[in-house]
Amino acid sequence: MIAKKISFFLLLIFTSWNVFADRVNVKLSTPNVARVGQQIRLAIESNEQAEKVNLPSMSNFEVMMGPMTSSSSSVQIINGKSSRSNSYSYTYILKPLNSGTFVFPAIDVVIDGRHYKTKQKKIQIVKGNANTNTTSSGAEISKKDMFVKVLLSRTNVKEGEAILATTKLYTRLPISGVSNIEIPSFTNFYTKSVGEIRRLSLNQEAYDGDIYNTAILNKTLLFPQKDGTLRIDPAKITVQVRQRIQNSQAFFDDFFNSTRTVSVDVASAPRTVRVNALPSPPDSYSGAVGRFNIKASISETKVKANDAITLRLTIKGKGNLSLVTAPKLDFPQDFETYDPQSKNNIKVTESGEQGSKTLEYLIQPRFAGDYTIPSVSFAYYDPLKDRYVTQQTTPFNIHVTPGEGKNATSAQVSSFSKEDVKTVGKDIRFISTDKITFKKHHRLYGTVTFYMLFIGGFFIFIVIYLMNLKKIKEREDIWGTKNKKANSLALKRLKKASQHLKNDENELFYEAVLEALMGYLEDKLTLPKSELTKETIKTKLAEKRMDNVSIDALLSLIDTCEFARYAPSQDHSAQEELYKKAIEVLSLVEKKIKK
Question: What is the largest CA-CA distance in the chain?
Answer without folding.
Answer: 140
